[in-house]
Write a structure and sequence with these properties.
It is built from four helices and five strands. By secondary structure, it is mostly helical. The strands form two sheets. It has a three-stranded antiparallel beta sheet, with no helix packed on it. It has a two-stranded antiparallel ribbon with strand order 4-5. A hairpin with a 5-residue loop joins strand 4 and strand 5. Helix 3 packs antiparallel against helix 4. The protein is elongated, with a radius of gyration of 39 Å.
């Protein structure tokens, strides 16, 4: 059991070490910058302090290793210069496609929600319109209409109550039946 714990903790340390791979450089203002992306092209190699994978920049290499590297480079034949082409150059648009896609998806979701709310409101208005027209037809027919009061007793509407109810129903029709 202890051996398993040791193995798992070692595995976790290894995973966390690979996640800590970062670039480190000095910017134009002399500040240290830490990032998971390489520095911009305008940052010289001497300002790059650390690269992912534990590689140090040339500015930090000991003089002896730098001399051996320089000697090896001068001894090897120089490769033919390669002219930069549009196919070799990285394409930087300044836009994050994933972020743009998420924004578009969020906007579409909001638009769909707004449309659903408008449809729900339109349906409620249509239903209110139908009920108000039915109520107005009943009030205009002249038949007796009974209502239940707050005490639960049944009351017959008099002419004044009928006229007030007719005006109320007519305002509902005018607002919802367009």
């Amino acid at each position: 059991m202890n051996l398993l714990r040791i193995f798992l903790s070692g595995l976790a340390c290894t995973v966390s070490m690979s996640a800590a791979a970062q670039w480190q450089w000095m910017d134009k203002d002399g500040r240290k910058v830490f990032s998971d992306r390489p520095p911009p092209a305008d940052i010289p190699d001497k300002n790059v302090l650390k690269q992912p994978g534990g590689h140090r920049s040339r500015a930090q290499e000991p003089a002896a290793v730098a001399a051996v590297t320089a000697a090896a480079v001068s001894a090897s034949p120089a490769p033919a210069p390669v002219a930069p082409t549009a196919a070799n150059a990285p394409k930087l648009s300044g836009k994050d496609k994933e972020l743009e896609a998420r924004k578009k998806q969020a906007e579409e979701g909001e638009a769909a929600k707004k449309k659903a709310d408008e449809e729900k409101l339109a349906k409620a208005r249509a239903e209110n319109c139908t009920r108000a027209r039915q109520s107005k037809a009943g009030l205009d027919s002249g038949i007796r209409i009974a209502r239940t009061n707050a005490q639960g007793e049944r009351e017959i509407m008099d002419d004044a109550a009928r006229a007030a109810e007719t005006r109320r129903v007519q305002t509902i029709i005018e607002s919802d039946c367009k």
